[in-house]
Design a protein that fits this description.
The structure is a single chain. Helix content is about 75%, strand content about 0%. It is mainly α. The chain starts with a helix and ends in a 10-residue tail after the last helix.
């Protein structure tokens, strides 16, 4: 792995950056919505986790709208 890192540094860092983004997203989601699924059945647990990811994405979009001063433009609005 050391030689891979030395000779293909840009490729190694590209993959590492993807990993750090995924770990950051997991940390943000778990810290905001909890680290465990509370449902009992597997199907409902999967739905609960998917909803947590969906809520996380909505929160990030709203945060960026406020932070960057972006006005939402919904379909059909002028």
């Amino acid at each position: 792995m050391y030689h891979y890192f030395e000779y293909r540094n840009a490729e190694f860092l590209e993959h590492y950056h993807k990993r750090s983004n995924a770990e950051t997203t997991f940390h943000m989601t778990k810290s905001k919505f909890g680290h465990a699924a509370r449902s009992k059945t597997e199907v409902v647990q999967v739905n609960e986790v998917l909803l947590k990811v969906f809520y996380h994405n909505i929160c990030v979009v709203i945060q960026q709208m406020w932070g960057l001063g972006i006005e939402p433009n919904f379909f059909g609005s002028s």
